[in-house]
Specification:
Zn(2+) binds at residues 42, 44, 103, 106. The protein is of the alpha/beta class. The chain contains eight helices and six strands, in the order αβαβαβαααααβββ. It folds into two domains: 1-30, no CATH class; 33-212, Beta-carbonic Anhydrase, Chain A (3-Layer(aba) Sandwich), CATH 3.40.1050. A hairpin with a 6-residue loop joins strand 4 and strand 5. It is globular and about 55 Å long. Helix 6 (133-142) crosses helix 7. 43% of the residues lie in helices and 16% in strands. The termini are far apart. The structure holds zinc ion (ZN).
Length: 217
């Protein structure tokens, strides 16, 4: 993929597919967006939420960052990009669902097992990856074989989702809405190798095929 392909891609989109969305987009321009879902996914180029969930413009407010991590609530005066997205989605857009979606072969989760050195060029990444530390610790404790990299990486990716869901509950306005029943938090795991998604079932702490997912609201 070269940058010129993007120019061609947009032309193709306008000529072949824009008409499919035109009515919706005109309405959304008039009314503004009103998505029910905040999707938190990884920045990984192989993760393509709109494609694999077959969504339309206006369906999902999206946060993507390294590792689909959720930083803990921190109401100081610093630049908290991810928290700003969460704050806007919950307090302004009043989303009804937050999906934390991890994925297989996640470079961020794998990096938790690497020494990134002391380079100032990775200073922000190193700090950010601390958000996966608990997932790494849990996985290493639970791993039957510490040399089984496949098990370690895949488990870390899934365990991290649960910790990021927990981090969402450090935001007081999220806790309030969850208690009221106006907001639900979901943990999903996307397998890039076959397009399937599993959801986290808190009742028995396992991931199950998305086909079995049931939701009343
Ligand atoms: Zn990733």
């Amino acid at each position: 993929m070269q940058i010129n392909d993007l120019v061609k891609g947009n032309k193709k989109f306008r000529e072949a597919r824009f008409s499919k969305y035109e009515t919706d987009l005109k309405q959304l321009t008039k009314d503004g967006q009103n998505p029910d879902i905040l999707f938190i996914g990884c920045s990984d180029s192989r993760v393509t939420p709109e494609l694999v969930l077959d969504t339309k413009p206006g369906d999902m407010f999206t946060l993507r960052n390294v590792g689909n991590f959720v930083p803990p609530y921190n109401p100081d005066n610093d630049y908290h990009g991810s928290s700003a997205v969460i704050e806007y989605a919950v307090n302004v857009l009043n989303v009804k669902h937050i999906i934390v979606c991890g994925h297989s072969y996640c470079g961020a989760c794998r990096s938790l097992y690497k020494d990134l050195g002391d380079s100032s060029e990775l200073i922000n990444i190193k700090k950010w990856l601390e958000l996966g530390k608990k997932a790494r610790e849990y996985t290493l404790l639970a791993a039957p074989d510490k040399n089984d990299k496949e098990y370690i990486y895949r488990t870390t990716e899934k365990v991290s989702i649960v910790y990021q869901m927990e981090n969402l509950l450090t935001f007081p306005y999220i806790v309030k809405r969850v208690k009221e029943g106006s907001l639900q938090i979901h943990g999903w795991y996307y397998k890039i190798e076959n397009g399937t998604i599993e959801f986290y079932d808190g009742s028995d702490c396992t991931f199950k095929p998305l086909e079995e997912f049931k939701n009343e609201s």
